[in-house]
Design goal:
By secondary structure, the protein is of the alpha/beta class. It has one domain: ATPase, V1 complex, subunit F (Rossmann fold, 3-Layer(aba) Sandwich), CATH 3.40.50. Helices cover 42% and strands 21% of the residues. It contains 5 helices and 4 strands. A 4-stranded parallel beta sheet has the order 2-1-3-4. The protein is globular and about 35 Å long. The mean pLDDT is 87.
C-alpha cells in the first residue's frame, strides 16, 4: 500500500497529521534533501513539500521529477504562497502535453 508524506517546517505541516498523513518536520535543507531521498526509496507515492523547503532542495526534487513515483507536490507554508507551486504545476503540464493548456502562457 502506498503512503503519503508531508515535509516542511513544523508549524506548516502539523495539521496534516490529523488527516492521517505522515509528517516529517524539517528545518535544515540538508536533512530535508536526505529525508526526501529516503522517502522516495520507501513506499511513498505522494510527497508534499512546503514551497520554502522546496526552493532550498530543488536539485533533489528535479531528480525525482523524472521518475513516475513519488509525485512531489509543493504546498504553501505558514509564511504564505510564493507561487512556486503553481509554476511547478505549469512546468509539469507543459512537459506532459507539450504546451501550456491551463495558464495560456501567462
Amino acid at each position: 500500500m502506498y503512503k503519503i508524506a508531508v515535509l516542511g517546517d513544523r508549524d506548516s505541516i502539523y495539521g496534516f497529521a490529523a488527516l492521517g498523513l505522515a509528517t516529517f518536520p524539517v528545518s535544515d535543507p540538508e536533512k530535508g534533501a536526505h529525508l526526501l531521498r529516503e522517502l522516495s526509496e520507501q513506499n511513498y507515492a505522494v510527497i508534499y513539500i512546503t514551497e520554502s523547503l522546496a526552493c532550498q532542495i530543488q536539485p533533489e526534487i528535479d531528480c525525482l521529477r523524472t521518475q513516475p513515483l513519488p509525485a512531489v507536490i509543493l504546498i504553501p507554508g505558514i509564511s504564505g504562497n510564493t507561487g512556486e507551486g503553481i509554476r511547478a504545476v505549469k512546468r509539469s503540464v507543459e512537459q506532459a502535453v507539450g504546451s501550456d493548456i491551463i495558464f495560456n502562457n501567462d
